[in-house]
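Q: Give me the 3D complex with pyridoxal-5'-phosphate.
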Amino acid sequence: MAIQSDIQKGFIPLYLCATIGTTSTNAVDPLDSLCDIAQQNGIWVHVDAAYAGSACICPEFRHFMNGVEKANSFSLNAHKWFFSAPDCCCLWLKDPSGLRNSLSVNPTYLKNRATDSGEVVDYKDWQITLSRRFRAMKLWVVMKSYGVANLRKFLRSHVKMAKIFEGLVERDERFEVAVPRNFGMVCFRLSLDEVQKSNMFSLKLLEGINKTGRVYMTHAVVDGMYLIRFAAGGTMTEERHVIMAWKLVQEVAEKMLKGV
Ligand SMILES: *Cc1c(COP(=O)(O)O)cnc(C)c1O
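A: Here is the predicted complex, encoded as structure tokens.
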């Protein structure tokens, strides 16, 4: 629909960004059908899997990516859920020639045998700046030192911890899980009789939680609903921390809701 209306207006739709794991709620776009529609219209599809892409090294989470083989490019932030220090973003392209053709610069002072042989990838040709840091080193060290089995174990344990937190929220009738949980993050809120009231008190609750200095949570606003975001993603996080975090939420809520 959006594509058709753009074409009718004389625009040329050329880029579609599908997100696997949105920032606010970890929602997942229907990649497979989006790619089909884009392909019919000659549109470049980029997959933004900044946070959730990591999960796909576990076979049980791979289905979130169904259709990814039809995409033109894919990005994943190793500094989010892949245990690398910021910044470290991986970009994959099905066909990098477009980047090379538009960004490549080849003054004589950069001429060298390796490049001439065509056996190396010159990443300077994939970006605007010439110089770049060796960020891949950080990721290489992470993969070498943990190995895929441990990395999977971490990711699975974070999802499990999020599930535990989700279960605790569901068992307390003052709260609700606000959107379906897909990965290591739970979006929850106070469930009072009016939306405005729920919003106001959820905001106050988040401030109260963070003021304790013991856990740190963030928020999002979706469809006029104020949500609190709880995420498990650190290498040192254990289930006992999750239980502690929920107890703390309940304590802060208890004090706040007195007399409401
Ligand atoms: C974090 C995030 C980004 C931003 O990534 P930067 O590397 O900080 O620019 C983009 N998209 C999604 C889905 C994210 O979670």
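A quick observation: Residues 136-171 form the longest helix (36 residues).
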